[in-house]
Each structure stands twice: as structure tokens, then as C-alpha cells.
Amino acid sequence: MKKDIKTGFDTICVHAGIGDYEFNPVVPPIYQTSTFSFDTAEQGGSLFAGEQKGYIYTRMLNPTVEAMENAVAELEGGHKALGCASGMAAVHTIFASLTQSGDHVVCSSAVYGPTVTLLKTIMAKYGVETTFVNSSVLDEIENAMRPNTKVVFIETPGNPTLAISDLEEIAKITHKHGAKVVVDNTFMSPALQSPFALGTDVIMHSMTKFLNGHADVVGGIIVVKDEETYVSFRKVLNQLGGVIDPFNSFLVHRGIKTLSIRMQRSCENSLKIAEYLESHQEIKWVMYPGLKSHPQYDIGLKQQKGHGGMISFELKGGFEAGKILMNSVKVCTLAVSLGGVETLIQHPASMTHFSLGKEGREAAGITDGLVRLSVGIENVEDLIYDLEQALEKTKSKELALEEA
Ligand code: LCS
Q1: Would the pTM count as exceeding 0.85?
Q2: Is the pLDDT of residue 404 over 80?
Q3: What distance in angstroms lies between residue 226's CA and the mean position of ligand 1's atoms?
């Protein structure tokens, strides 16, 4: 595609990041090499000195990785991006870049669990203190800000509660205090939410999810708005070493071509499933940003272009019903992770959070009947039929609970 034409988002997904390569391939080649040779010692010296652009060593930069980074930067309307080995490598790189000993972070409590753990353990060990807040309540952010606050970290909708936070208002509060807002945009993807347009400063994704979309890559990305931030982040990533490799970058770049239509289908399926679940007798409540019953429905409408592919719901039958549901589904796949073309289902109480025990789970807000769905792009009738037949099997458990 010629570079001098303004295009829509779907077109950008298909063409973003594709440069000019030897032999004119339509997709970027996989430069599966750890290192690049120099023509002369002088050229090597000038590359290392930054006097000329080129590739030296794949941990520092690789053309296949760079092509994918450029694609994500374009989709997010950013300046440049940095490909990381995982979403967690991106989170670590961000905090290692933006904070130092004695600094303070404000973090939403509705974020992916290991992000909380990283702040409470590794970053705390380095002398960075964190205050966790309900970021859907703006006053909680304002009250948590200190003179040494450097970062406000928000995930919206959050994992797994799907709570939505108002990014535009949070950016205003944060900037008034001289700090930066970092957004984990994993659940929305660039197709459904543009945090830079809402005034925030740094965006990250677990590319393991919607960006790649095919459950065959672990990867992360950081998108920044200016060259100065890019250079400082690149130095830290180069030292920490958590970079993505060329083959995984190639797969993510391929996945991005269908991001827009995958998200569209996933949103359509999700709304139908959420409405179906909300009217089901065996279900206590459903949390989905597209349902009017969602506590921050209006904020979602204001800042999102779609409601996303994640749904959580609570089974009346509790723990046992959750286990029965997991063991009865036939189209939904029983697995953690999210954002792929296949619908994934998981029951935290009997799976990811089982080892915490009931009390530990309650402290973490994980109720016994909580189920999380990552809705894929299958025929929605098949998904609803599958949930229907599996929910039917949980019925006896609810009766047993009532009779007990
Ligand atoms: N941010 C969000 C919102 C996530 O959901 C995850 C992973 C990460 C960051 C970390 O990314 P990773 O290092 O795994 O690429 N979420 C997972 C989940 O909900 N189940 O399994 C992984």
C-alpha cells in the first residue's frame, strides 16, 4: 500500500507495519537470525555509535520484530512500540523504566493478578511503593496521589471483574499531579479502545490475547508517544532482555490482519451470550460491558468502540455447579488465557484459584460460582446451545443447595 493515503482502521490492520524488502514479498520475511554481520569494522562502529540505522543483534532490534512493532504503534496511534516476550515482560519493563527507589505507584485493584504481585514483590523490593485503588471511583485516585507518584496504572475493563475506569478523567487527575497514566489495553485491543486519544501516556498489551488472536503465541507490547520515552524504554528492555523473537512477531503480525473482524464477531457473539445468560434461571448475575446492568455502562459507551469479548457470571449453584459446568461443555474449551478465535471457559474457584482455599478466594474477590468466558468467533447458536446443555446439568446442584 502506498504510504500517502489516509485509510480506515480495517485497512490499517491489513497493511500496517509492512515495509520494503528484498524480492518484494507481500508479507515481511522472518529474519530468524540472532545477529547481523558488518561490512567493515568502521560500519560496525558507526552502527554501535548510532550514526547510521541498521541491525546489530536481535535483542536490540530485528526487522521482523520491528515490522510488528510498527504495526501495533500505528493501530494505537502511537510513535513507536517495543515488542516484549510476554505481557508480564511489558509490565516489568514499564515499571523499571518509569520508577526508581523512593517512588510511588497508584494501581487499579482490578488488574491481572500477576501485575499486582509484581508491584507487591519485585517492585516493592526495589523500593517502589504501590497504593491499590478502586479506579472506577475517581476520588480514590485523587486521594491516593502523592508528590512522589510517578505512575497511575489502569486496566479497563479489568481482569477478571470487567470494571470500567474513566480514562479521560484519570488522565486529567494524574497529569495535575505530574505523573503518567499507563493503560493495559489487552481486553479491548486497539480495535475497541484508543487510550492515547483519551489523553493517557503509555499503552501496553498482552499480545498473547486479542492482538495475536490464535492462542499460539506468548508476547507483549509497549506503545509510547514520543522518541525520548522510546529511547529510554528501549535501553531498559535491552538490559532486562525480555524481548519477543522474530517468529512470534511474525505470527502476531499475521494475526493483526484480522483483528478488526475478529473483534467485531466476538463483540456480536458476546452480547447475545450475555443477554442469554442474564435471563437464565441458574445464573445470579452477569457482568458484561454491553449490558445496561453493568455499573459503568455509560463510561464504556463513552470511551469504547465496542463492548469486548469477555463475560463473567455467577452460578447460583456455587462451587459444585461451576465444576459441573466445566466438565459438561462441549464447544467451549476449558482453559485459562483469552482473546483467541476459540471460546474459552474457566472457573477460578475450582481451577486457577483452587489452591487459595475458600477464605483466600473470598479475600481476592473470587466467589465460588464465578465463571469467566472469553468469547470466540464460532457460530453463536452453537455456543448458546453448548452453555444451555451444560447449565441444564448444574440444575440439580442448585436444588440440592436449596434443600440443604
Ligand atoms: N494483562 C492482562 C490484562 C492479562 O489478562 C494478562 C494475562 C497479562 C497482562 C499478562 O500477559 P502474559 O504475560 O500472559 O502475556 N492474562 C491471563 C489470564 O487472564 N489467564 O491467563 C493469562
Answers
A1: yes
A2: no
A3: 26
